[in-house]
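Hi there,

I know you've been waiting on this one. I reran it after we fixed the sequence typo, so this is the corrected version. Both the input and the resulting structure follow.
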Amino acid sequence: MVTYDEAAAMLEAVLDEVPDELFKGLSGGVILAEEFKLHPKSIPQRPLYIMGEYRNNSLGRNIVLYYGSFSRVFAYRTRQEFEDRLRHTFKHELRHHLEKMSGINTLNKYDDDKMAMYEMGMDINNFSEPPIG
């Protein structure tokens, strides 16, 4: 299992892959929170963990990734799978930030559609994100 400190090091490496200009306007930066977070509509028989969030509120804009959620969902996966999912989630949340800054709403619609599928009992694990642009 990947520890919090190992996940933090992985996240630092992921952040280093991204050009600095893409962080413009992300006043609260990127946070790796220790806790897990369940979606408010999570069904006990099929828990739906929130892996990350883009937050835009009176305190500014930031990205939060939930180590606790990752450690529960990916406890028995390889380190590489954990890191790949961490990278994917960060890029998803960064895209929310970039779309918000650009006045685009594509990814929010995708997230809403994915949630509707979950509520209907469908498998959402292989639901592909919309293309950029």
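Quick highlight: DSSP finds four helices and three strands in the chain.

Best,
R. S.
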